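Quality-control log, excerpt.
Job 1 of 2 completed; input and output follow.
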Amino acid sequence: MKTPWINVVALMLLSGIFLSMQPAKPAYKLYRSDGTETPFDEMVTALLEADIIFFGELHNNAIAHWLQIELAKSLYTHDSSTLIMGADMFESDNQLLMDEYLKGVITERSFENEARLWNNYKTDYKPFVTFAKDNGLRFIATNIPRRYASLVHSKGFEALDSLSDEAKKFIAPLPVSYDPELACYKNMLDMMRPSNHANLNLPKAQAIKDATMAHFIAENLLPGSRLLHFNGSYHSDNHEGIVWYLQQQNPKLKIVTITTVEEADINTPDSAALSKADFILMVNELVTKTY
């Protein structure tokens, strides 16, 4: 016996109602540091008051990379004349290559062959550079050349004194301030000590990266501009790292931070996560990684 068409329609309607009652499974949520969930657009409005915005990422987190480029687009839409971009994934001695590529002096192929790009550049960071190129934006390669960070790791800050004047152009001015009691450096060393292989220079290598990024951010922050910086979250969490160095130089800077955290339950952020930044991108830990 055939089912009357009216019953079929009723079943379809009931199925639709049932599906609409299923709980949503969001991949991420945004929170303020006080635990208040906030829409993306409200976060953007708050960020428009900042001189510098740090978007701390987990390097293989696809949601963070997607939201980073969406944030850049939103800031550009609100005020295209003020936006500058920068990232710790690009080293300062590649700034010339970056500038030449953005201005069309060299090809994309030349840039990608000659710059020391991360293995996940094409999937995770190329969209940033392409956006800057398409819109005529400046993009700052802020990080220290890795060979000099490695030098500090093996021989300490003193090894930088032997560099040539040309080489010193790519790092923070010497001598570099360093506070070993700053939590981001102290904790790094404390985590190593139980293994009896603690290298006192490890946090110094981290500090020279932070100091160098702060230096090039400050150097390129033009009056009336807004700099959006992408970096590993550890470099800006708890307003330490790069943020600490910038505040030593200019405590009047308006700095806002975002961090990325992965959790099994993104509906109940804990106090440890909320304390890391002004805004917290809480991502479901099961979201596929980019590598």
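Job 2 of 2 completed; input and output follow.
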Amino acid sequence: MRASFPPLSGVREYAHRGFGAVYPENTLVAADSALAHGADGIEADVQLTSDGVPVIIHDATVDRTTNGTGSVQALTLTQLRALDACSKKGAQWTPCQVPLAEEMIEKVKGRGLLILDLKGPWSTAQLAKLMAMVRSHGALDQTMVTSFEMSYLTRVRQADPRVMVGWLRGSPTDPAPVLSLGNAAVIVEESAIRNNASTMTGFDSVLVARGSVLGAFTLKGPSQVGVLKSLGVRWWISDIPLDKSLLF
């Protein structure tokens, strides 16, 4: 039986890059560890190799998180998969590969929501293929696609009207474009929420009235929680595990 996780209601904690401050970010071991720790889902970055395969990695280059060098988009899948994506986090970690997007989908499926954050350029055809991959794994109701680029979210929704989308914002700007798509979240940089405290109650009310939810990225520790919660945040995109009793 296919699991269902309705993400646009209630309080949720999502592990940013699989709690990337604790585990080797954007890896299967990070996702598995974060879910075992009690995260409601995983936020993971997805971009394309030179041969068009969706993989899970944040930076435009592999230099920071692997033992390799160079642009992700200039490497073939074979070249990328030869790299170690775990050991730079510390000698205690067994070497591991940069995950395929479909590996991450399978890792999270049935255990929580997978938030796929689009990095790098994506054509309409490539976005359609990504949605086809999600469908083929039976994970459409357990996956959200996020981006700062509204055009990507529109094309994702055109590829599959059932997929959830999330608009990432550096400030609480007019949410009307994404709310018009329906089944959409608005996820705002946490300091921008705090800096616009006087307007956030009204902003959150608009979201709630349209069946949406206010999320905050990226939490670094529990000291940020109190004020954000008072301003309407119910989704928490966090680098570290948070005490869930603080979130409710």
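Post-run check on job 2. The two ends are 30 Å apart (CA to CA).
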